[in-house]
Write a structure and sequence with these properties.
This protein is mostly helical. It has 14 helices and no strands.
Amino acid sequence: MAAIGPVLDMIQNDSGIGDVSAGLLTTLPVFAMGLFAFFGGLLQRTLGAERTVLCSLIALGVASLARLYFHGATGLIVTAAMGGVGIALIQAVIPGIIKRDHSDKAAQLMALYTVGIMGGAMLASSLVAPMSVVSSWPLSLAVWGALAIIALISWLIVSASPSSADSKRGTRLPIASGRAWFLLIFFGIGTSAYTLVLAWLPPFYVQLGWSGTASGLLLGGLTLAEVIAAVGLTSIIHRFPDRRPVLYTILVMISFGLASLIIAPEALVIPGLLLLGLGIGGLFPMSLIIAMDHLEKVSQASALMGFVQGGGYIIASFMPFIAGLLRGVFDDLTMAWIIMLVGIFIQLLMVSTFAPNHSLSSEDWSLKKTAVA
């Protein structure tokens, strides 16, 4: 996903796809991530958590490597969707494994887990354009399948460990809980900022006259700031049982970053993108952490996280597509940044409800109503 933006002009020139179809290259995997996150609990009950991750890594690796040979418009879109399915199932199950095996450090490990996500994005966005110049853009997209192979081998070793207590237990989705829907919307808006920047920041600066390599390095620098924010979060989050001060700080940073893109994208490029990177890098893990804060029982983790991420990713998947539509109409992305800024203001209003010690047990969702299947 992160590799698309810096070489999007090359892809469009060679494949002939327009801005709307280009938006689908990010929209489809995110939409698939949302849709199939709902099935994470079902697969966990069928295969077990460890095997679900194993199968998902295989799908992700195959989707990435296939782009070396299937790099037409259809091939790119199909592999984008397939990769999204693999990512969705992994991200639905991993939080439950963390909660199951390390419940006392769940918040810190969730933040550390997102460091890996953002670190991968940083590598891809920084290196894909130089690699495409040396070789070709299909190879520069496919080579990231190697990371899936490394992860697959690592997972086989870890899941074979005697300490790995696989579980096929899980609860049904908390559809009846208004609080769960609230968390879903909050996660969806925040992740929209992540997917929008990931997909369209490089093309935005290419349109302003920057080279593909320079815009890719710009996105790489932003994702480096995201990694720094997520790493920093792992060391301080346990000091803030009330998550609201952290969330307010993060959202204000993103607001100023988006305002910089709207008002003076070149003059304020460094401070603007630094604020965006630090803000988004903190918001993504915090959105997952506050969802996990609402859990009373470990058995609820996969169901709640699958529900929150499923609906949230579906919401977030529309933002790159909408941005592609707006770019096609206005030949500019300023309106997309404005829409995203409005979304961040909505999140600022939502944060006040995240008081400490709020549990979903006081809501409509309970284990009695969502019996273990």
